[in-house]
Amino acid sequence: xxxxxxxxxxxxxxxxxxxxxxxxxxxxxxxxxxxxxxxxxxxxxxxxxxxxxxxxxxxxxxxxxxxxxxxxxxxxxxxxxxxxxxxxxxxxxxxxxxxxxxxxxxxxxxxxxxxxxxxxxxxxxxxxxxxxxxxxxxxxxxxxxxxxxxxxxxxxxxxxxxxxxxxxxxxxxxxxxxxxxxxxxxxxxxxxxxxxxxxxxxxxxxxxxxxxxxxxxxxxxxxxxxxxxxxxxxxxxxxxxxxxxxxxxxxxxxxxxxxxxxxxxxxxxxxxxxxxxxxxxxxxxxxxxxxxxxxxxxxxxxxxxxxxx
Amino acid sequence: xxxxxxxxxxxxxxxxxxxxxxxxxxxxxxxxxxxxxxxxxxxxxxxxxxxxxxxxxxxxxxxxxxxxxxxxxxxxxxxxxxxxxxxxxxxxxxxxxxxxxxxxxxxxxxxxxxxxxxxxxxxxxxxxxxxxxxxxxxxxxxxxxxxxxxxxxxxxxxxxxxxxxxxxxxxxxxxxxxxxxxxxxxxxxxxxxxxxxxxxxxxxxxxxxxxxxxxxxxxxxxxxxxxxxxxxxxxxxxxxxxxxxxxxxxxxxxxxxxxxxxxxxxxxxxxxxxxxxxxxxxxxxxxxx
Lengths: 309, 289
What we know:
The complex is a heterodimer. Chain A is mainly α. Helix content of chain A is 76%, strand content 3%. Chain A has helices spanning 2-53, 71-77, 80-111, 118-130, 133-143, 149-156, 171-196, 200-208, 213-241, 245-251, 262-272, 276-304; strands at residues 56-59, 64-67. A two-stranded antiparallel sheet of chain A has the order 1-2. In chain A, strand 1 (56-59) and strand 2 form a beta hairpin. In chain A, helix 7 runs antiparallel to helix 10 (245-251). Chain B folds into 2 domains: 2-67, no CATH class; 75-243, MetI-like fold, CATH 1.10.3720.10. Helix content of chain B is 71%, strand content 0%. Classes of the chains: A mainly alpha, B mainly alpha. At the A-B interface, helix 1, helix 3, helix 4, helix 5 and helix 6 of A face helix 1, helix 3, helix 4, helix 5 and helix 6 of B.
């Protein structure tokens, strides 16, 4: 009896719940439509397209778009310029990632204390992060000229500085330094937040046990901030692989290809030599490197990252 | 043990006086490569061209304003400034609107394959611009939109940078307590009104983060205008800075540094007033330009 009287009341309620779930699904789909279509159109689709283009000899100026199979990749594999570009990219990424991580940690450790006016220094180290890369690179072009400010300073100390950006032996290091000072503030802040999350009792306990400053850092602080170190490593690596502005503005990959990182080489081949098929092939390699390094670092995190939540 | 007791009072005072002095000195020296370039840039605007190279001095030996007039006449900087400003505002507005809606939907609404769809969007954030720009260049050319602002605005407002913004909003909405929304739902408010009237007004921090991040990214855009724009009057400031030469092709150092100062100083000024917000925004988002 109860059963009979119950069901007619429950059925419409269930129907209305179903209708509201359907409305919610429709609303959800509508609200995510923009970014989803955008990601497909301006992220995923371009990837498939350059994969397709990379199999072509595509030179718009010559009106050519011919399917050539893997010929572009074969040519790259035998190209001295490309080999050099890979080496330069490796050196650049290692230089930037190492220097940015170490300097950021040092600065964060310095700033991690209560001291009057410390905010001014934090702001100073962070300031280059907010300004346009083009502006930053341009100013350093002046500073690093053979008779620029840096060499004038060195001259006061009796040192003859090199023509930083125009000699093959110092150009890459110069660009790494420009990139370091531009971006290290961001990593510094990430580390600073991590350091402030390390409980004071732990480092004080270490001090009582007689651990020196470096020992405390190595055995207590560092293990606790490894998740942040991980994040900084991945972000800095990806950022370094995407580098473009300082190279395009200051060295054009030179002198003698010594700063010809792969992201700039792609631009040079595609947009200046107008060989878009080859440029696409380089793009595929660049994407593969970004993907491989990100996955590798992510995969290695279990080995040494503390408290993977 | 006894050595400790004796040593302690000797060591402490020395540390207290010397420590801060050494610290301040170290921090000041370390600040030089971060700050000196910016100061040098501003002061060198007022140096004669001959004084730019060959000396390390900050202060001009001879002050001149000869560069100031040329900043706007040699290169249409004002027009380029406007181009950068309005494209950045449009990109930022679209990004905030779309990312907030999508972030809310991903955080709260149930719809089919929500998690998989989110992963698809998220997977694009590490894609290098240099990779995606080749197909986008082709499409732009086919649509006849080269040398317009469309290819600057649309890919940046809808592409990987938007995905980052969606992620920031989603994380923020996930951290909000559900009670307010549940109460509004019991009052019979519909889902979209809840989002727009109740949740969005609470989303100030996430919105500020996305606005700062997106605006800076857009304002500092470089490779896109380099590839898509030919006419000087359609250029954005970043590229405009590289166009300071007199009619004989000789570089106008002081005018170029003046133009650079003018693009950097407003950003730095806003940064100084909203320092905490900037620092939080750029680090919470984490991604590097």
